[in-house]
Predict the 3D structure of the following.
Amino acid sequence: MATSPETKKRLVTAALLAPASLWLFVFLVLPFIAIVVFAFGERAPEGGYQPSFTLEQFANLGARAAAFKNTLLLAPVGAFLCLVVAYPVAYYLAVKASPRYRLVLVSLVVVPFWTSLLVRVYAWMYILGARGIPHLLEMIGIENVRLLNTPGAVLLGIVYGYLPLMIMPIYVSLEKLDRRLLEASADLGAKPLSTFFGITLPLSLPGVMTGVALVTILLLGEYLIPQLLGGGKVFFIGNALVDLFLQSRNWPFGSAIAVTLVVVVVFILLIAMRIAWRFAGTRQVDLV
Amino acid sequence: MRALITAVYLFLYAPIALVVLFSFNSGRSASEFVGFSTQWYAKALSNTFLMDALQNSLVIAFTSAVLAAVFGTMAALGMERLGGRMRAVFDGLFAAAIVVPGVVIGIATLVALVQVFGFLNPLLAAAWPGEQPPKLSLGFGSIIAAHGLFSMALVTMIVKARIASLGRDIVEASNDLYATPLTTFREIVLPQIMPSILAGFLLAFTFSFDDFIIAFFVAGSNTTLPIYVFASIRRGVTPEINAIATMVLVASLCMILIARFLMREKKTNN
């Protein structure tokens, strides 16, 4: 049977996309459907899942209110702190740094992001733990300082872990900034500060939005930082999920929390995209 | 400004440097450097649990990265040929694979796989002619598959960006000179996207090698290196963990630097 070139072209396209489609379906779409179904189910007496159609799990979300409160409070605060530290760095890299060293300096920001978060969090357990800074403080007479297992330690870990992810998109949007605009502003007699607030800052807002949205979203699912630096005292949604799935084996309730988390993530993403589109065309974020 | 920037770089690197420094401490103290020693490395390297976990992690990272590099590149090439709506569907799904928190991916994969296995295992047992029917369970396969999802999305994103920046004229020239589509692909397109594929492979490898949370849910009774390190950390900070951490750092560092170097090529090429 002769196939027309058009059919052949379609077959090739389908063949190219087949493996990835299979993956997306079996390991993304199907699992998501599964947790949605579970979220409307009941907990079997021995743990696990029992089919049912009930809103009980969602009605019960309040039982984990502390985890939601901590996450929804500390994630945006952490993202904001990241932004405060990241903006000057991104500005320096894009505008002030000499081109000779720019590449190296940018690499130095990206590299930590791709090294094990577990190891980087471990480093702070080391520094904040009893034999770290508190030990040094004891030597100069300040006793009983607790740094580890506090909200402060969790925030520090958040800023440390997610700083590179905040710097990169802001750097990208500042780097694309047309320098002639800054010169024009200066030529017209604007002070550096008013050039910054009138031109630089507004034009870098898409990068800022991308960074804030990315960091906030990833923080909503964070587990390691609150677990290791919060010592189980600062509980995030991620910690509640691990507890519900691996310890107390209440899968339907855990699924309801996971579905809620995804809804929150999508909601934040939509808002961020709307704002980003309003300010400028979408920009590619170079994460590598 | 300079001082502030220096402070931030110190903030980024000092904690890591401290971990590395104390991995060479001859004493057990985490605050006093007694003397130089490589004993913790010797101890780590002779720890069979640790070496098993390392081997598992290497196998999983390599396999999932190969899968991601091949299937991700194919997907990127396929998406180029798609029309607007289908393309948007794939864009959305790949974006979801990257953006949905790892903890949710881990849970959802666990839930789905347990259901699928629960459905398939009795069927398999009934259809199996021999005595001992194979039993599907969580393990290497599920970790590789779950890591493969994120990695595939990552490779697709990187390769797609590279394809978008390719000059169309050289492909057209090749076609005009009567090269078959396959020859054009092999001689023109592939060499130009190869650095991106390799970079994607290395990043996928690094992601899988460092991932804790997804593996934590779908590993079954298997242990990967991050799972082992996590369990050890909860038992307490020891210089041996510093030695392991240092080795992990060096490995990821090499990967990411090579990946960056490969990605750099693309900017000088055109």
About this structure: The domain at 33-279 of chain A is CATH 1.10.3720.10 (MetI-like fold).
